[in-house]
Amino acid sequence: MASTNDLKNGMVLKLEGGQLWSVVEFQHVKPGKGPAFVRTKLKNVLSGKTVDKTFNAGVKVETATVDKRDMQFSYMDGDYFVFMDMETYDQLHIDRKVVGDAAHFLVEGFEATVAQHEGEVLYVELPAAVELTIAETEPGVQGDRSTGGTKPATLETGHQIQVPLFVTTGEKIKVDTRTSDYLGRVSG
């Protein structure tokens, strides 16, 4: 248990029938009249839905212990992504539904943060940007460069993103894992 006065960003609360909510942002408000309160923005850990919720100051809220570990993606096993704990070398099978959009950017050997609560995997979190190779893209047309246009490209994971016209098949690029945006070429 914790008090609403102890809230921190990233803290996970157990509310409304055991649902887990992560604190995205919070603000202590002390109005001129009436009791102080805490205005929060909470994100449902499983669904990703965000809500605004107000608590009275000093109210007890139940916190959930979320175990976050760095794990390495090893291989696919049917609909399961198999991750290896970097410390214990234990393997963890995670359902594709739980991996979600992170699946678009996972290549064998990539590291990700796996969050668990009481043995249940909540989500897989990737770094903000990853380096991937372009498996296939059409050649850019000479003279198109000045327009700043883009073209579709398929990454080595099979995910399709938009890239600048000058990018070619086989090039390694940096991709934003939250938006699928092209961030630049990787040199060397």
UniProtKB/TrEMBL annotation:
Keywords tagged on the record: Cytoplasm, Elongation factor, Protein biosynthesis
Compartments, record wording: Cytoplasm
Pathway where it operates: Protein biosynthesis; polypeptide chain elongation
Chain ranges of the Translation elongation factor P/YeiP central domain: 68-122
Family: Belongs to the elongation factor P family.
Gene that encodes the chain: efp
Residues annotated as domain Elongation factor P C-terminal: 130-185
Keyword Cytoplasm listed: yes
Primary localization: cytoplasm
Protein name as catalogued: Elongation factor P
NCBIfam families from the UniProt entry: efp, PRK00529.1
PROSITE patterns associated with the record: EFP
InterPro entries, alphabetized: Elong-fact-P_C, NA-bd_OB-fold, Rib_uL2_dom2, Transl_elong_fac_P/YeiP, Transl_elong_KOW-like, Transl_elong_P/YeiP_cen, Transl_elong_P/YeiP_CS, Transl_elongation_fac_P
Function: Involved in peptide bond synthesis. Stimulates efficient translation and peptide-bond synthesis on native or reconstituted 70S ribosomes in vitro. Probably functions indirectly by altering the affinity of the ribosome for aminoacyl-tRNA, thus increasing their reactivity as acceptors for peptidyl transferase.
One MF term in the entry's GO annotations: translation elongation factor activity
Keyword Protein biosynthesis: yes
